[in-house]
Sequence to fold (116 residues):
Amino acid sequence: MPLNEETNARFDSLLTLHVDKVITTEQFKQQNERITQQQEDLANKKAELILALESKQNFDQQLHAFKKEVGRFITLDFDDEQVMKQVLQRLIHKIEVFEGERIKIHYNLSNPYAIN
Fold:
């Protein structure tokens, strides 16, 4: 049973209990508020998951474009040092150098085809 149908069924059961005077109006209201809050929480979680999925898809597309650009770089024969610098600038956003000869490279995943 889909979640929305399950929630509707719970509300219908609650309403029946109220109509049959098994529960008070106050109990009905409290339970109804609880069901409404659960629906809102689920709707918010659904929206978060959709955003996360879209973000991952966007990242996957960016990564694919980056890999394609790296593939092009690997197959090129650079006689001109300036051309090689321009291609590297398209691939690398920045390089951080730390003590102990450790480096961190920030790749240009957001737009590897940008012209610098």
